[in-house]
């Protein structure tokens, strides 16, 4: 047998025997173990709960933002991020994106897979008989919009090509609007609603989504064709929000697409070489980057809060391990007299501390899972906000490894003290 295999076998044997002895000691001192486990469990509960809450907040915010189109360029009047040296009134004087620019980009762009135009009307109302849905957001969309954002239908369909070209009065309703306008009907498809006295035929109803973390929801939006909505809205009105949504072809980077769009729009708007752009090319990463410093601060706060809880639990472990060493001093002396090495005593007490912390950590993690399962149940049953807490594998591993680390840090000094006891003096102690 090689020396490596011999030492490997001996180390495994020492660790396994120490684990058994440490388990027996913990079992024989249930009250002491319970007090230790409680401190660590509360510490792990605090730190992993904070991390889970921040992770879930970050995940839900990014999920909400990316649902608008993570691989899209939004051509608009206003940028999503402002430069300090750029006065806001310059943005105010910019021209709106126009329907004619949609056609120009569709013809001239070689890198775009799909281009759509979208215009938003101010909050209004829709009517059906005596039923009125107030605060409805009306959005006019062009034909390629379905290639950029997929609708989930509870009933019906997207607009047909001829409905775009003929500017027919057709509408796709959000779920909440449909419920208000047709409370007693099994289906709203084929029925009519009134918008500013004009009749709109319902061709689709979207599935219920609930509100996102920003309190936005597709449930209270009605979609019509851009041609239809432009009968009621002047696209030259500077207060009307309009945008082009551009999706790149497979393998095309967003920066490449933005460079091409810049050239097309500057040419279309007759901007000179030294003129600054009078349009904004936005993308979702601009918004997510705004939240990154916020998440970092929340993680630091979470670490500080959880750190204090862990520190209290750790000192509890150290204190109880010192008491354990004091109570078993004579037994340590007997073991040393019978040939037990210092390393064996060290490992025995160190494993006892690690086991204490690990079991406490597992209890803390079980409490975290139960807490957030209860929170998710409360969110789903008592709120229409679409938010979910997720205890990630990463946070579970952080909890377990933190417990092991605490066992080593707060158990090493009592374990060293026990391993360095003089066997004769230890056996004489009472």
Give the secondary structure arrangement, pairings included.
Layout (H helix, E strand, L loop, with lengths): L2 H26 L1 H37 L6 E4 L11 H5 L6 H10 L3 E9 L3 E5 L2 E11 L3 H4 L4 E4 L4 H5 L4 E4 L1 H7 L10 E4 L2 E9 L14 E5 H4 L12 E7 L5 H15 L11 E3 L1 H44 L1 H9 L4 H41 L10 H27 L3 H6 L2
Parallel strand pairs: 4-9, 6-8
Antiparallel strand pairs: 1-10, 1-11, 2-4, 2-10, 3-4, 5-8, 6-9, 7-8
Can you give a write-up of this model?
By secondary structure, the chain is α+β, with helices and mostly antiparallel strands. It folds into 2 domains: 3-65 and 289-428, no CATH class; 73-283, no CATH class. Helix content is 56%, strand content 15%. The chain is elongated and about 100 Å long. It starts with a helix and ends with a helix.
Number of helices: 14
* Mean pLDDT reading: 81
Helix content: 55-70%
The main sheet comes to:
11 strands, mixed
Q: Show unreliable segments.
A: none
List the secondary-structure elements in sequence, H or E: HHEHHEEEHEHEHEEEHEHEHHHHH
Q: What Rg, in angstroms, do the CA atoms define?
A: 33 Å
Q: Structural class given helices, strands, pairing?
A: alpha+beta
Percent of sequence in beta strands: 15-25%
User: What coarse outline follows from CA principal-axis ratios?
Assistant: elongated
Distance between the termini: 44 Å
Oligomer: single chain
Q: How many beta-strand runs?
A: 11
Tally of structural domains: 2
């Amino acid at each position: 047998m090689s020396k490596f295999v011999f030492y490997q076998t001996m180390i495994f044997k020492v660790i396994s025997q120490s684990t058994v002895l440490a388990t027996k000691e913990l079992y024989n001192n249930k009250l002491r173990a319970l007090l230790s486990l409680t401190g660590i469990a509360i510490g792990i509960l605090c730190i992993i709960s904070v991390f889970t809450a921040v992770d879930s907040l970050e995940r839900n915010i990014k999920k909400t933002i990316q649902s608008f189109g993570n691989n899209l360029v939004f051509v608009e009047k206003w940028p999503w991020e402002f430069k300090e040296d750029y006065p806001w009134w310059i943005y105010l004087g910019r021209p709106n994106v126009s329907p004619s620019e949609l056609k120009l980009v569709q013809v001239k762009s070689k890198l775009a897979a799909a281009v759509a135009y979208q215009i938003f009307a101010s909050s209004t109302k829709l009517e059906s008989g005596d039923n009125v849905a107030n605060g409805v957001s009306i959005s006019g969309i062009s034909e390629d919009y379905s290639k950029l954002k997929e609708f989930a239908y509870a009933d019906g369909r997207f607009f047909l090509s001829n409905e775009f070209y003929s500017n027919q009065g057709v509408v796709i309703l959000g779920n909440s609007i449909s419920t208000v306008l047709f409370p007693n009907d099994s289906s709203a498809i084929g029925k009519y609603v009134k918008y500013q006295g004009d009749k709109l035929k319902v061709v689709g109803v979207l599935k219920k989504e609930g509100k996102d973390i920003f309190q936005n929801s597709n449930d209270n939006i009605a979609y019509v064709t851009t041609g239809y909505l432009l009968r009621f809205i002047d696209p030259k009105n500077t207060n009307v929000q309009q945008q082009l949504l551009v999706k790149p072809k497979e393998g095309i980077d967003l920066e490449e697409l933005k460079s091409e769009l810049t050239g097309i729009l500057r040419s279309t708007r007759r901007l000179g070489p030294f003129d600054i752009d009078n349009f904004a090319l936005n993308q979702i990463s601009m918004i997510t980057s705004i939240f990154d410093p916020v998440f970092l601060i929340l993680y630091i706060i979470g670490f500080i809060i959880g750190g204090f809880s862990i520190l209290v639990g750790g000192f509890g472990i150290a204190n109880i391990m010192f008491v354990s060493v004091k109570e078993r001093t004579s037994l340590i002396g007997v073991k040393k007299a019978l040939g037990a090495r210092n390393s064996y005593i060290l490992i025995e007490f160190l494993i006892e501390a690690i086991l204490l912390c690990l079991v406490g950590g597992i209890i803390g993690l079980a409490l975290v899972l139960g807490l957030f399962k209860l929170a998710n149940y409360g969110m789903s049953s008592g709120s229409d906000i679409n938010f979910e807490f997720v205890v990630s594998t990463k946070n579970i591993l952080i909890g377990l490894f933190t417990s092991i680390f605490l066992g080593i840090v707060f158990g090493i000094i009592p374990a060293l003290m026990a391993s360095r006891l003089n066997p004769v003096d230890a056996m004489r102690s009472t």
